[in-house]
Specification:
Layout lengths: L1 H26 L14 E6 L7 H17 L3 E4 L10 H9 L3 H5 L3 E4 L7 H5 L12 E5 L2 E5 L7 H13 L4 E5 L15 H14 L3 E4 L5 E7 L2 E6 L16 E5 L4 E8 L2 E8 L4 E8 L5 H6 L1
Parallel strand pairs: 1-2, 2-3, 5-6, 6-7, 7-9
Antiparallel strand pairs: 1-11, 4-5, 8-9, 8-10, 11-12, 12-13
Helix pairs in contact: 1-2, 6-7
Length: 300
Amino acid sequence: MKHRKSTQWLIISLVFVTTLVQAQVAAKPNLTIKLPLQKNSVRFAVIGDSGTGDKEQYEVAREMETYRQAVEFDFVIMLGDNIYGGHSARDLSQKFELPYKPLLDAGVKFYASLGNHDDPDIESRYRPFNMNGERYYTFKRGDTQFYALDSTYMDAKQLTWFEKNLQNASAPWKISFFHHPLYNDGKMHGPDMDLRSRLVPFFQLYGMNAVFSGHEHAYERIKPEDNVYYFILGNSGKLVHNDFHRSEKMETSFDRDRTFMLVEIVEDSLYFQTISRSGETIDSGQIARQAASVKAAGAK
């Protein structure tokens, strides 16, 4: 009887989510699109600190599906704290499978990195997160090499692995994503200075182009540091209002609602669009691929 009730609950939830997504798409036929939508580009979405299971997470997920139908991104990078609280099968369903069901059904892949609220044993082996049992990993899409790092446990073994993979990389674009931000004007957490001292030398030496992090429950874009672009997005589920103090490093910030990002890489340009839960575009732009430094060119 208990199993039957659980199955009935799942079926009802799936129908509810699908109906809401269909209603939202019908209600928003005209979307603001800031991406070029070029043929053969690398197109993906970004979420961070998402796994609450609350209605706000579901609303962000529905907005993502609305934009997916227009933009046709085919994968999502996750910036950690993917599953808050328990990690039972029911938790994984409520906090990931149900909110993102329309995206998963459309064939969108999710690539997770681990945050301090995540269970590395469970999540690294959770097939929909595409971590293949590893705490850190790399994958390539088009002209872009992605590096998912475990910033909670940045040990010597991981750093050795990271440098070796950077040395062997031939892709024009290099993007890292992990949980704890190296630069951040948030009042709640702020930057991880120890992690910065460990990772920035590799970014400088091997020509990292862009870095995406979460942890701070808001959105911020940092002015280029050492020729690297930094984005902080930790408010796809959680949110802290009035979280920022301004600094010279801040390009823009947003701490009034949940958000996600759309990114498209076309040849030597990266286009980005940050969208709130209500569908408002709160940041967008284009950045050029940086010329490799002398150090980076010599290291290859």
